[in-house]
Design goal:
This protein is mostly helical and 540 residues long. It has a domain of 280 residues: Serine Threonine Protein Phosphatase 5, Tetratricopeptide repeat (Alpha Horseshoe), CATH 1.25.40. Helices cover 42% and strands 6% of the residues. Strands 1-5 form a two-stranded antiparallel sheet. Strands 2-3 form a two-stranded antiparallel ribbon. Helix 3 packs parallel to helix 6.
Length: 540
């Protein structure tokens, strides 16, 4: 793995050539070399840089993991523990104060455009040289590495812009989606004047650009890494063609273009050649601090190199486990995060059947491997300092009710070097399930829902009398709520909930928030303002 880390380290110098997206020197290379990438192996640095910016930096310096907290904390699945705090806008996010310029949303904004700037510089270099900047390179290197790098760059630009739209733009059903300009679009790097006079566009224009990038990525990316053909650094944690298909499915699903989404979902689910499957316990997607991946993981953020000290720290805000935990952080290795502030709301825990109305643990919860492996229930504090902190709340003595915490991060042998799944097969299957249901294909929807449930049900759960009729559904009894709730069980604390509610045009419910009304779709004003200094540069 050292070779991949070295590439990351090499790219840092290139990143330092740029500053913040709000300043002129962000858009211009300082002392730019006449020929910044002398050969295709050096051009590999351009492909790696966006991954580094998206996932690998200190608190709030990236955007992909920080956005998970930003997105989920506004939704009904999250509860803010009273009196808990951190150097983080926990209350602004929980109280949905999107009119406030929080340092986390601003940092994500800046990181995303920093990634886009680097990508544009590399793409300009490629296209301005007539898509053949290395005429003396071998045909094999051009075919298997140069084209792939360009595919990755287009993919990662789409990834950054998609996050920007979720964070700072109205949902597709909002009239402002088509009529008001919210964020700037930057298609190229070389025109510094245009960069300094930012062109703001409507959100639908951004989505057209995202789709174009993903179409190009699908065209250029290989299906998988092939030793001897691809650069060694491409082996782990990088986008391939299936990643691009999966992400295109996300985009089309949010846009309500479900037939388009189905085309890509079917490829990822049914035509992946055995690369991805729901045939392992849920924990296997979250417990890798080495080069391996769980079978359902389509794309993951790579943290496993022991010299990497830049973990997904923002996730500590809503994960039970401490990032310094080892071997999963349970039992003899128990190590609870000291600054987590967001648990699952009890309203949603009851809704999905993991608590009853008296907040007791249900048989359905005990029977579910996800509940056992990637969530953690603590009973309320009883005022007894001798209580076991692995069973009873001792950190927040004001919490008298049981709470279920997300426990999906830092689960590997080495906590902070545990890889983070970005796209999982379970998400793709559940997306197809709800589309099939809404389009009247009830048998197909039931098959997909059962595929996810079959992997989750623990038939050996001690002392529980559950049979398949309790676990699995048919075309005759499946409901939309079953699919909605299954998705919460699978994807809570992964930044999915807001995206899903908007794709399904469902209300944003209060969860456990007191005196907070539901917000009907299209969730007006539920997007964060962009930094004021960026607005000062707009020309329209």
């Amino acid at each position: 793995m050292k070779r991949l880390l070295n590439i990351f380290a090499i790219t840092i110098f290139f990143s330092l050539l740029f500053h913040s997206c709000e300043h002129e020197d962000f858009f211009e290379l300082r002392n730019p070399p006449e020929f910044p990438w002398l050969n295709i192996p050096e051009f590999e640095r351009a492909a790696v840089s966006p991954y580094h910016i998206s996932f690998m930096s200190d608190w709030g310096g990236h955007f992909a993991i920080a956005d998970r907290v930003i997105f989920d904390s506004k939704t009904d699945i999250i509860y803010h523990i009273p009196e808990s705090s951190a150097n983080y806008p926990v209350l602004e996010q929980y109280n949905r104060q999107t009119f406030v310029n929080t340092h986390r949303s601003q940092a994500s904004f800046s990181a995303g455009y920093r990634s886009i700037g680097l990508i544009n510089a590399a793409l300009d270099f490629y296209y301005e040289n007539d898509e053949d900047p290395y005429p003396n390179a071998s045909a094999s290197d051009k075919e298997h590495n140069l084209k792939r790098i360009i595919g990755e760059l287009h993919f990662m630009r789409a990834f950054a812009y998609f996050h920007h739209t979720l964070r700072h733009c109205p949902s597709p059903g909002d009239p402002l989606f088509l009529s008001q300009e919210f964020i700037p679009i930057r298609r190229a790097f070389t025109d510094a004047d245009a960069a300094m006079n930012a062109e703001f566009v409507t959100t639908d224009v951004i989505y057209d650009f995202i789709v174009e990038d993903l179409e190009r990525a699908i065209e250029l990316l290989p299906e998988r890494y092939v030793a001897g053909l691809h650069h060694a650094s491409y082996q782990h944690g990088r986008a391939n063609r299936f990643t691009a298909h999966a992400f295109m499915a996300r985009v089309y699903f949010r846009l309500g273009k479900w037939d388009n989404a189905l085309q890509h979902l079917n490829i990822v689910i049914d035509q992946n050649g055995g690369m991805f499957a729901l045939n392992q316990d849920p924990i296997e997607a979250f417990n890798r601090s080495d080069a391996s991946r769980g079978n359902e993981v389509i794309w993951y953020a790579l943290y496993y190199d022991p010299e990497n000290t830049r973990g997904p720290y923002d996730a500590t805000l809503f994960t039970f486990n401490d990032y310094r935990a080892t071997n999963g952080g349970r039992g003899d290795f128990f190590r609870r995060s000291s600054w987590h502030t967001y648990s699952m709301s009890n309203t949603v825990a009851i809704q999905i059947g993991w608590m009853d109305e008296e907040l007791n643990e249900t048989d359905a919860a005990k029977f579910d491997k996800r509940y056992q492996q990637i969530y953690y229930r603590l009973e309320g504090n009883r005022g007894n300092i001798a209580d076991d902190p692995q069973v009873y709340e001792q950190q927040y003595t004001n919490v008298k009710e049981p709470r279920i915490w997300g426990d999906k991060y830092f689960k590997g042998p080495d906590g902070q070097n545990t890889n983070v799944p970005v796209i999982r097969l379970a998400e793709m299957v559940l997306t197809r399930a709800i589309i099939r249901y809404e389009q009247g294909n009830l048998q197909g929807a039931a098959d997909d829902l059962n595929l996810v449930r079959r992997r989750a049900w623990d038939h050996n759960a001690a002392g529980i009398d559950y049979d398949d009729s309790d676990a699995f559904v048919t075309a005759g009894n499946i409901t939309a709520d079953m699919i909605h709730n299954e998705r919460i069980k699978e994807l809570a604390f992964e930044g999915d909930r807001l995206y899903y509610l908007q794709a399904m045009q469902l209300p944003l419910m209060p969860g456990d928030r007191d005196n907070t009304p539901a917000i009907d779709y299209p969730h007006e004003n539920m997007y964060w303002v962009i930094p004021q200094i960026e607005l000062d540069f707009r020309i329209n």
